[in-house]
Every structure is written in structure tokens, then in C-alpha cells.
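Field log, afternoon session.

UNIT: design team B
ACTIVITY: writing a sequence onto a fixed backbone
BACKBONE:
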């Protein structure tokens, strides 16, 4: 991205991620970094993505669980329980 002029030459990966509002680390580190974001006091949504390079499915699920159970609640998010559709895997619905 530096070659295209989108980022300054010599920028390290930590600073490049910060400029794109990308965060990594422990839940506590991510919460602290998000709290320092100037837009957080007026933000109404938090859109998250786990790293697509996570080695396996269980690690990806764990990353999403940490966002839902540690990061989001630390930022003041509270779930609202709304009735909605329930996912039933095909094997269960067929009586298998």
C-alpha cells in the first residue's frame, strides 16, 4: 500500500493497522484500543471481523465468542433478547 501512495513509506504494521482501525491482541488490549478511538463516544454500531487466517474453525468460533462475551460488553453492549427464527440443522429436522 505504501507503493501505491495509500500509506507512507516505512510505516510499520502496527501503525498501518491503527490507521485502518484494525485491532489485534487480547480482549483487554482490544477494548483499551477501542476506548481510545475518538469516534467511540458517538458510535452506534461495532462491526467486527476475526482474522480469516485463523488456523481452524474452533479458533474462529472462539474469536467471535470473545468479541461477544468480553469485548462488546466491556464497551457497554448489552444483548437484547428478541424472539426470532431458530436454526435447526437438516439432520435434526429429519429425525436423524
Amino acid at each position: 500500500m505504501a507503493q501505491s501512495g495509500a500509506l507512507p513509506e516505512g510505516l510499520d504494521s502496527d501503525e498501518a493497522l491503527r490507521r485502518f482501525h484494525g485491532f489485534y491482541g487480547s480482549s483487554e488490549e482490544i477494548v483499551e484500543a477501542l476506548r481510545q478511538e475518538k469516534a467511540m463516544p458517538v458510535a452506534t454500531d461495532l462491526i467486527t471481523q476475526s482474522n480469516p487466517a485463523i488456523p481452524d474453525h474452533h479458533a474462529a468460533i472462539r474469536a467471535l465468542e470473545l468479541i461477544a462475551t468480553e469485548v462488546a460488553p466491556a464497551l457497554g453492549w448489552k444483548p437484547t433478547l428478541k424472539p426470532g427464527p431458530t436454526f435447526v440443522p437438516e439432520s435434526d429436522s429429519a429425525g436423524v
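LOG NOTE: Residues 35 and 75 are 8 Å apart (CA to CA).
NEXT ACTIVITY: expression trials, pending approval
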